[in-house]
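Customer escalation, tier 2.

The customer says the design service returned an amino acid string that "doesn't look like it belongs to this structure." They asked us to rerun it and document both sides in this ticket. The original structure tokens are below, unchanged.
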């Protein structure tokens, strides 16, 4: 009887959670690339058309710089930014007085930056709280198209995890109270291009991959305390691909994409389950899982895409079980969109779109030039049978999710967009260089 009563209590608690949070869980964008890490929201239904004068629910300026994706949980929107305070270290020359040290002429910062977490009301855009996670001078510069707040936060509905790279990892409750913080050391990114891989949360564990010109690592933290559960060194150079965590073949696999190899780690032990080479340099697109395969791609110094089995062990590089490969038109910065068997991606950072059958790797359409877009840094998203592709020039094209490249609308805003969109409910969130837009049909 005692065990039966305990079981009934657990069932009641579960039912309460389902009724209390079921709709809200489905209605959120809790991490980079959305609820399923594919770029798709299953229940969102954002507008098809908008402009500066149409279907803008609110628009607020975000001080500082950041290209991380907004994260939505229930009635709150979370966003990261880094603000140059102007407080200088006189021992470091001004950037304009420093000699050229790399190809991109990226200089060492000499001013303190405030690394800030901002929470906004989802319905009004009003700021609810902000926390200064850290104030420090960045130890390295960043590419002009990058910044010091480019990693997207993530949440489990109770805690918010904010990763500022070399400035630290910070955990808050959703009302802004700091729960813990960790200094995980400084990365040494080749050519000082800046950091950008986002943390991934799974089953109470926080996964952080740091591939750079120093000693690259993968580290897993206890999400409640921030304590390290395990850490492994990686033989990789610069890469920015956010990992994908998936339960498959009896284990929870952490899949990391990089130039040396795509690797699957056991989330519990940190041991490598399988690995597969074949990507090109500077890997940025994150993996997407389709059934028994993970699709990984890259688009710098060549093009590569491949569908790798999740069922194997060891080195699968030469395996005949690799489902398909492609060597044309893959993205450099944006991640692909996997939407019910259709895989959408652009070539390099250009507005040239290809759609594949994710099961076979065969081209459905493309390469198709999207003439009204400029270069693309933001990753595409999908909802309600539509695909949203955002250009750096402020233009967003909305396509029908279909075997044809059918444009439904072309929308323009007075902004530059490098951050990827977020979808929740009837809303689309677009973060520009200056403003965050909440787009909803009036």
């Amino acid at each position: 009887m005692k065990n039966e009563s305990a079981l009934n209590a657990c069932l009641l608690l579960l039912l309460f959670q389902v009724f209390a949070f079921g709709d809200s869980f489905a209605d959120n964008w809790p991490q980079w690339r959305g609820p399923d890490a594919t770029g798709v929201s299953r229940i969102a239904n954002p507008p098809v058309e908008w402009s500066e004068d149409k279907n803008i629910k609110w628009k607020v300026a975000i001080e500082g710089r950041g290209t991380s994706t907004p994260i939505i949980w229930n009635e709150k929107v979370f966003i990261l930014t880094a603000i140059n305070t102007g407080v200088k270290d006189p021992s470091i020359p001004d950037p304009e007085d420093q000699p050229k040290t790399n190809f991109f002429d990226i200089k060492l910062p000499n001013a303190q930056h405030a690394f800030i977490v901002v929470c906004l009301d989802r319905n009004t855009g009003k700021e609810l709280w902000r926390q200064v996670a850290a104030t420090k001078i960045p130890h390295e510069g960043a590419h002009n198209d990058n910044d010091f707040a480019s990693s997207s936060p993530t949440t489990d509905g109770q805690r918010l995890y904010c990763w500022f790279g070399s400035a630290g990892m910070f955990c808050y409750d959703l009302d802004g109270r700091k729960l813990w913080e960790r200094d995980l050391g400084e990365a040494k990114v080749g050519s000082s291009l800046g950091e950008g891989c986002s943390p991934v949360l799974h089953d109470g564990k926080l996964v952080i991959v740091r591939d750079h010109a120093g000693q690259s690592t993968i580290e897993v933290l206890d999400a409640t305390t921030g304590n390290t559960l395990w850490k492994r060194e990686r033989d990789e150079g610069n890469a920015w691909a956010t990992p994908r965590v998936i339960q498959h073949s009896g284990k929870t696999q952490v899949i990391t994409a990089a130039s040396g190899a795509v690797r699957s780690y056991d989330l519990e032990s940190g041991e490598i389950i399988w690995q597969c080479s074949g990507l090109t340099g500077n890997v940025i697109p994150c993996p997407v899982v389709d059934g028994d395969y993970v699709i990984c791609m890259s688009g710098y110094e060549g093009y590569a895409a491949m569908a790798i089995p999740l069922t194997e062990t060891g080195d699968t590089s030469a395996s005949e079980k690799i489902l398909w490969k492609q060597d044309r038109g893959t993205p450099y910065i944006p991640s692909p969109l996997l939407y019910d068997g259709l895989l959408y991606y652009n070539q390099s950072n250009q507005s040239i779109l290809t759609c594949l059958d994710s099961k076979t790797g065969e081209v459905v359409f493309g390469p198709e030039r999207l003439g009204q877009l400029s270069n693309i840094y933001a990753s595409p998203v999908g909802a309600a049978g539509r695909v949203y592709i955002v250009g750096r020039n402020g233009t967003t094209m909305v396509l029908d999710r279909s075997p044809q490249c059918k444009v439904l609308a072309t929308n323009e805003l007075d902004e530059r967009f490098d951050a990827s969109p977020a979808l929740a409910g009837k809303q689309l969130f677009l973060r520009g260089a200056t403003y965050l837009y909440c787009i909803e049909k009036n």
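Tier 2 assessment: The sequence is consistent with the input. The two ends are 55 Å apart (CA to CA). The chain has one domain: 27-440. Sent an explanation to the customer and offered a walkthrough call.
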